[in-house]
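Escalated from tier 1: zinc ion holo job.
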Amino acid sequence: MMEASETWNRLLAHVRETALLESTAAMLEWDEHTGMPVQAAEYRAEQLMLLSGMIHQRRTDPKIGEWLKALADSSLASEPNSPIGASIRCMRRDYDKHVRLPESLVKQIAKATSLGQQAWVLARKENAFQSFRPHLEEILSLRRQEADLLVDEGMTRYDALLDQYEEGARISTLSDLFSRLRDALVPLIHEASLPKNQPHSSCLAGLFDLDQQRSLSRWVAEQIGFDFSRGRLDETEHPFCTTLGPHDHRILTRYHSDSFSSGLFGVLHEAGHGMYEQGLPAEWYGTPAAAAASLGVHESQSRLWENHVGLSREFWQWCLPHAQERFTNLQQVTVPQMVKELNRVEPSLIRIEADEVTYNLHILIRFELEVDLINGSLSVADLPEEWNRKYQDYLGIMPTSDAVGVLQDVHWSAGLIGYFPTYTLGNMYAAMLFDAAERDIPDLKARIQIGSFLPLLEWLRDRIHVYGRRYAPMALIEKATGHSVTSQPLIDHLDRKVRSRSGASERS
Ligand SMILES: [Zn+2]
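Tier 2 regenerated the structure:
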């Protein structure tokens, strides 16, 4: 009989070696999205396929099951929130899920989603929902089968899918949180959309030199606390953040010369993700103790820096002079003008271009639709009509085509069902965290106004980052803020935003 500590050491060595392979694959993917020559694509796909096969084999290695079983009753597992105890609990959870799914189903899903994404690209381009419909039907049927294998007592099928992205989240909790949010947002957006509350003209029109944008964005990322000795900022088509090792975090954005804000806000968002990764305990790299708590918690970190910091008056009191040094066309812009312009509220059709207030309704629509698709009360044939009806009801606008309606997102074609809600959960967590940080750091806003961001970053490190996956996401937020998860702080934050806008326009 092996000692528990010896078993743990073997398990640890095994997962650390898997992490070496995973980070190598991530490096190849980062390269694929930054500067890989076109003709390298085929060989790169072979490299990634080989690595992902090796990674999958290691993750489902029966040895892991044996080690975890031996550790389950040991003293090492007795502290469920200690780094080792939590790692054992999370690895058990992940391993159980892996082994419940037969390889044939995993392969079928991989094939259907690969074909599904290709079909989606074409269908969106040609505005032809009918050609995508059989693919979506197939994907839904496979993910229902998957959910039936993963479902535990007291869970619905949709819960089983959701639980893969946000541990412990359930449809019953989310429906309650989301319907409160929807009931508050619909009238708020109606008010914000009134012509008297819209800024008359844009103070951010014109062209913005790309090199100056790069320089400002990098400088801002550095000032808020992204550590460039352990990370890089690069450019790509769709902004993202990836981790290539315990001390190697990459953030990526894109700049447009006709937009002052899109590149910078891409950086604020991705730096929020990147600083979370940089704050995870490097000594546990490769184990759940150094992994992000969930997608929702990850998104809370990016949204906090992007929306609660980056869109605030205090941030622009500090940042505007630095932007004006680089862009002559901002010389006449005042802080209130800048803040009002960046905080425009306007219902629009495309989720990824939506403002902070309307964004969540895009998510709630998708959540309600995918719940109905999974439980069978909505057919794929009726999906476009139902999509349009909800846009009209909630946002007061009607998609002009399926391409800018039901076909706009890649998620469902990639099999990502149960994923969308984590975006709005992230916004709820961010509002709760910012409120709690303001309570704990009384001069937080005065600090932001002078470009002093370290107190906020340290607060997030102490309460969120250091814990990795040691607590379930909602328990972690509750522990950090002292409150159970609610939509009220987000509602209050968005409400203040809309009210201050209408107040400002009445005065002007
Ligand atoms: Zn994000």
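Residues 504-508 have pLDDT under 50 and may be disordered.
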